[in-house]
Amino acid sequence: MDDMDTRPIGVFDSGIGGVTVFKEIRKLLPNENIIYYADTARVPYGPRPTEEIIRFSLDAVDFLLKQQIKLLVIACNTVSAVAFDAILAHTDIPVIGVIEPGTRSVVSRSGIHKLGLIATEATVRSGEYQKRLTQEEPNLQLITKACPMLVSLIEEGWGNTEISKLVIQKYMEDMKGADLDGLILACTHFPVIRAQIEEYLGPDVQIIDPAEETAKELERVLQERKLLHPAEGEASIRFYVSDKPEKFKSIVEKILDPRDIRQVSLT
Ligand code: DGL
Q1: Ligand 1 lined by 19 (C-beta under 6 Å)
Q2: Ligand 1 lined by 129 (C-beta under 6 Å)
Q3: Which of 6, 27, 90, 214 is most solvent-facing, going by the fewest CB within 10 Å?
């Protein structure tokens, strides 16, 4: 019991996308207390310049550190791609991003020779996935596409509608004809519309969501650092958002059970 730690895990995304990672964490580690912070007043991050993404991310990290978190999960590919080092330099607690687990979820599968990658502009521009994936699999053919409008549609609650279906078709036209073996959802918002993407690309394309592998990585780090929560009692879950909570709540409720969501202003 001495090796256990009841402090919460901090989970951060620019918006509701990280909830797809949160869900996997809850499945694997139901005893852990979690504080989720979504910077809904400033989402999307993807089209912003690197310095701004770093500044916003550090604001979020400071907020979560004040909540005495024991570990931070960056449930955002954009932040993981451009602000990971700045965040590591900013805190002593363990930090987990989504790109390393994302890379692992691709290379651990067999039969992926040609891979599509959809993400935000900042993630594509950073070249992080391209670098890591080709280090592991030098012969991998990679086709990347920034799909910023999908983030906005999902934040608006318009995922899984006729509109998102059309936007998927528009962005992914080239990928559909490219004979892909797999597609990585390199933005944590995109698993929300996974079924529509799957339907458009057809059954021969494996859809890869880094969230499950991220939760496994979290479990490993908690074990290694002796930070696991003792298995007793009900976990405390809290969501904080930087904009009015109503919209976030109504979208999140479609993805999760209703939770306690509060507004907090960091600016
Ligand atoms: N959910 C975020 C990601 O994984 C980014 C969305 C955004 O703010 O543009 O990249």
Answers
A1: no
A2: no
A3: 27
186 Cα to the center of ligand 1, angstroms:
9
> Both tokens of residue 171?
């962005």
What is the atom index within ligand 1 of the atom nearest the CA of 18?
A: 1
Strands (E), 213-260: 237-241
CA-based max dimension of the chain: 56
Q: Which pLDDT band, with edges at 50, 70 and 90, does 118 fall under? A: very high
Query: In which band, very low, low, confident or very high, does the pLDDT at 145 lie, cut at 50, 70 and 90?
Result: very high
Q: Give me the residues paired with residue 115 across strands.
A: 142, 182
CB 186 within 8 A of CB 102: yes
Angle 162-176/194-201 helices, nearest 10 degrees? 40
Backbone angles phi, psi at 157, to 5 degrees: 85, 15
pLDDT digits (tens, 9 = 90+) for 32-58: 999 999 999 999 999 999 999 999 999
pTM greater than the 0.85 cutoff: yes
Asked if 240 and 59 touch (Cβ cutoff 8 Å), the reply is no
Distant-in-sequence, close-in-space partners of 147: CB < 8 Å, separation ≥ 6: 118, 119, 120, 167, 171, 172, 187, 190
